[in-house]
Design brief:
Helix content of chain A: 25-40%
Mean pLDDT of chain A: 90
Helix content of chain C: 40-55%
Shape of chain C: elongated
Order of helices and strands of chain C: EHEHEHEHEHHEHHEEHEEHEE
Number of helices of chain C: 10
Low-confidence stretches of chain C: 1-12
Number of strands of chain A: 5
Structural class of chain C: alpha/beta
Strand order of the largest sheet of chain A: 2-1-3-4-5
Chains: A alpha/beta, B alpha/beta, C alpha/beta
Mean pLDDT of chain C: 87
Order of helices and strands of chain A: EHEHEHEHEH
Oligomer: heterotrimer
Radius of gyration of chain C: 36 Å
Largest sheet of chain A: 5 strands, parallel
Distance between the termini of chain A: 22 Å
Strand content of chain C: 15-25%
Structural class of chain A: alpha/beta
Shape of chain A: globular
Distance between the termini of chain C: 55 Å
Number of strands of chain C: 12
Chain lengths: ~150, ~160, ~400
């Protein structure tokens, strides 16, 4: 089931990784718009539409790294799952960490799924494309009216 | 049947859909062990290690639960609620796979914390493709929270 | 505080020594003089302090610790043996000689049992110098031995700490290097793909070299990480069924086995006491190597076990290209390779990891091999856990 323009929020402090995500999705069948923020505080400001993000769109999917400056990924996750407005947005943890404790903790705090960033470029692209294909191509998302 | 290392718990009362799902999973070699529950009560017994499944342990949850909504005895949303409100089971990934087109079902599903919600395609072929995709995504791309078992990273089967 | 008579290093008994600091516990002035004279007569130059009670004794010990204590057994206000207690309380290892009038054998033996170094009778003072000499010599040997032990303990400590530092460094370095390396690998590869043929020929070549180098680095770092992990993680040793481990390993190597047409035969394998993941690593590396370094024919690999005293000796034999005996030890060294990278892939870390694991479990690993005649790798693992709990 194809949706119109879908909004992907990438929360990652490494611009090189954000760029890789964008590269991976060039030419994807689904029309998606990618926005990125570089730390936990910005992520929450974006999601709560505060200050400079007053006109921010509500993302349909969040790709969340764990190691972020200011407020880390789990803190963002917790905030999202605590509020009624944000908790229905699926969150995919996308992190280099393969530590069992990070994986379990993420699930405990409500992450929808956990994908380790592969070290190999092709695998990285495959992973990102699989994520996008699954969530934007097949899942019935819980969408709200978007501003723009 | 040794039910300790179950990969997928499939909860569906439609025999055709179950058969299609099992076939799709098997053809991709995605899941070693799929347990089928035909109603909500059996699903709960399985997941909470009670009744006929009292010999199961919470240490070996399935890596994925494929849950239909319309089920006899106890319906899918109730099963989901029980799962996601109990500490012992709430980290188990649940995918709602249903023919329901009710918006309410979808909203409540996400509210209750389902990991994802998908609609069963009507066409057999699309259904099969979807199941394969599901299996690949949740068992290969995704890292489930279970501790034991071999995990394979996306695209890299050594 | 040691009062080692270092000045008494000379071997010959009669030679004049430096001043011997002695503390006399004696209430009779004449007896005291006789003691000193006996020592002088035999070449001892003595600096003597005389005390009669515990307070004075303690004071002298602290102010001017002697090299030897000579105590009268029987004093009116104080017992000579009490001096021993004071020495102990002050934690001083100073030899004490009892100088006494008649002392029954039983008493004498008892005194020595309680810690007196020796005793001399007042009418046998001629013996005193020899007794003193012997006491001082023994004290010196004792001090030397302590010193050596302390030095050794300190060196062992330093070494352990240094080792731990190195392991920590190797782990942290390889772990932290992964991230920036991932960036370099990804983007050099992207550059190569995206701009192939669009820049000039040299550019393609340069990017190619950079990309290859980056990817090799990535694998190297991963290998290093794997190697340094062996020491780091608390190995959870338990009873491990090698048959079960082999099943998992064969599954992991399924593709390689199928592609090479390898046939792996296992004997009945025992249970060992070790960390399961590490045992799997050993088998995976050895069997993987057997498949990789194959000869013309499909690999025929055989895994066996035999009991060797209280350990199990496991062996993995193959019909591959073999190893020249002069390299038999070298191959276990980290990053040592015998072949060009173009001939056989790999970094040369697999065997180093095997060796590290085996040795951490108190075992040995070695290879018997000849070029063209295949190889047999043998290694030992414990069959028992602590307190003799048998692996099963």
């Amino acid at each position: 089931m194809m949706q119109p323009l879908l909004e992907l929020l990438v929360v990652d402090d490494n611009p090189a990784d954000v760029s890789l995500v964008c590269e991976a999705l060039v030419g994807s069948k689904t029309r998606s718009k990618i926005t990125s923020v570089g730390d936990g505080v910005e992520a929450l400001a974006f999601l709560y539409r505060r200050e400079k993000f007053a006109n921010a769109i509500r993302p349909d999917l969040v790709l969340l790294d764990l190691n972020l400056p200011k407020r880390d990924g789990l803190a963002v996750l917790a905030a999202m799952k605590a509020g009624p407005n944000l908790r229905r947005i699926p969150v995919v943890i996308f992190s280099t960490s393969q530590l069992r404790k990070d994986i379990v903790r993420s699930y405990e705090m409500g992450a929808n799924c956990y994908v380790s960033k592969p070290g190999n470029l092709n695998d990285f692209f495959t992973a990102v494309q699989s994520i996008e294909e699954f969530w934007f191509g097949h899942v019935t998302l819980s969408r709200e009216e978007n501003n723009g | 049947m040794n039910v300790t290392e179950v990969d997928i718990l499939l909860v569906d009362d439609s025999p055709e859909d179950v058969e299609l799902t099992l076939h799709a999973l098997r053809s991709e070699n995605l899941a070693n062990l799929v347990f089928v529950a035909r109603d909500g009560e059996e699903a709960l017994d399985f997941l909470f290690c009670t009744g006929p499944h009292a010999d199961r342990s919470f240490q070996h949850p399935p890596k994925l639960v494929l849950l239909d909504l319309k089920l006899p005895k106890i319906d899918g949303l109730q099963v989901l609620k029980r799962l996601k409100t109990d500490e012992r089971t709430r980290t188990i990934p649940v995918v709602l796979l249903t023919s329901s087109k009710e918006e309410r079902d979808r909203i409540v599903g996400y509210e209750l914390g389902t990991n994802s919600y998908l609609q069963k395609p009507v066409e057999f072929d699309d259904f099969r493709k979807l199941v394969k995709l599901l299996g690949m995504y949740w068992l290969v791309t995704n890292q489930p929270p279970v501790s034991k078992g071999k995990s394979v990273s996306a695209g890299q089967l050594k | 505080m040691s009062s080692a008579g270092t000045k008494l290093g000379k071997q010959d008994a009669g030679a004049p020594q430096a001043k011997l600091r002695a503390l006399l516990v004696e209430d009779n002035a004449l007896d005291a003089t006789l003691v000193v004279r006996a020592l002088n007569r035999d070449g001892f130059d003595v600096a003597v302090d005389v005390v009669q009670d515990e307070a004075a004794f303690t004071r002298m010990l602290r102010a001017n610790p002697p090299e030897i204590v000579l105590a009268d057994y029987n004093l009116p206000t104080w017992k000579g043996m009490e001096a021993l207690k004071v020495l102990r309380a002050e934690k001083l290892d100073i030899p004490m000689i009892l100088v006494s009038g008649a002392l029954g054998d039983v008493t004498a033996v008892e005194c020595i049992r309680q810690g007196v170094t020796d005793y001399v009778l007042k009418d046998g003072l001629a013996r005193l110098p020899e007794v003193v000499r012997r006491a001082l010599r023994e004290k010196q040997e004792r001090s030397l031995r302590h010193q050596i032990e302390e030095d050794l303990a300190r060196k062992v400590d330093e070494l352990a700490r240094s080792n731990a530092d190195l392991e920590q460094f190797a782990y942290v370095a390889s772990h932290d290097l992964q991230e920036p390396l991932r960036m370099v690998t990804a983007y050099t590869q992207l550059l190569g793909e995206r701009y192939k043929g669009k820049l000039d020929e040299s550019a393609d070549k340069f990017i190619g070299y950079a990309s290859e180098g980056a990817q090799r680095m990535q694998v190297l770092i991963q290998d290093l990480l794997a190697f340094s992990r062996v020491g780091r993680q608390e190995a959870a040793s338990a009873s491990v069924d090698c048959n079960s481990v082999m099943k998992d390993v064969l599954q992991t190597l399924a593709t390689a086995i199928q592609e090479s047409g390898a046939v792996v035969t296992c004997g009945d394998l025992p249970a060992v006491w070790a960390d399961r993941t590490q045992v799997a690593q050993i088998f995976q590396n050895l069997i993987g190597n057997a498949i990789k370094f194959r000869g013309e024919q499909p690999p025929a690999i055989s895994v066996k076990a035999e009991k060797a005293d209280d350990r199990w000796q496991l062996s993995v034999s193959d019909n591959g290209i073999g190893i020249a005996p002069e390299y038999a030890e070298n191959i276990f060294v980290v990053f040592q390779r015998l072949h060009a990278r173009t001939e056989y892939p790999g970094n040369g870390i697999g065997l180093a990891i095997c060796k590290k694991i085996v040795e951490r479990n108190g075992g040995r690993i070695a290879v018997e091999s000849h070029p063209g005649k295949g190889s047999t790798f043998k290694f030992t693992l414990p069959s028992h856990g602590p307190e003799g709990v048998a692996a099963q």
